[in-house]
Amino acid sequence: MEAPAAPHDPADTELTVTSPDQMRELGRRLAKLLRAGDLVMLTGELGAGKTTLSRGLGEGLGVRGAVTSPTFVIARVHPSLGGGPPLVHVDAYRLGGGLDEMEDLDLDVSLPESVIVVEWGEGKVEELTDDRLEVVIHRAVGDTTDEVRHVTLTGLGERWAAVDLSVLAA
User: Fold this and answer.
1) What is the per-residue burial (b if ≥16 Cβ within 10 Å, else e) of 135-166?
2) What is the pLDDT of residues 127-136, one digit of tens each?
3) Predicted TM-score of the model (pTM)
4) How many CA atoms, within 13 angstroms, populate the side-chain half-sphere of residue 103?
């Protein structure tokens, strides 16, 4: 006898994105769901589209400055142009020490009034807050000309319990 299927968690949403423009548009739409105090953790291999999604988030939040990969500066703050929360864009790729190195960035101080987006944050930022949005971007391995990405969004904690991420699939 088969075990009954687990109920679908409404905080999980899976999307297929077929171009960089669609990834940016996903970021713009996702930005409408974000507010000050939100932590968004982006996971995916090199070239998956994390920075492209972040660029869309910045556009959707209406922040100043081009959102580009902060790999060498680690973190970049983009102030709001319209009274919304600033975007703190972090690239934790070169940080190997987990939360200890992340603490040097004072993200816990910025979190209450900012939207913080962390690329390569898995295993490094989970202790900042129980409430976070995890975005995992999968792409075809080997064929680098394939623009198709499978994006899984998982809302964790009380903040995301009532947020219907499926509106992003519309």
Assistant:
1) bbbebeeeeeeeeebebebbbbeebbeebebe
2) 888 899 999 9
3) 0.85
4) 5
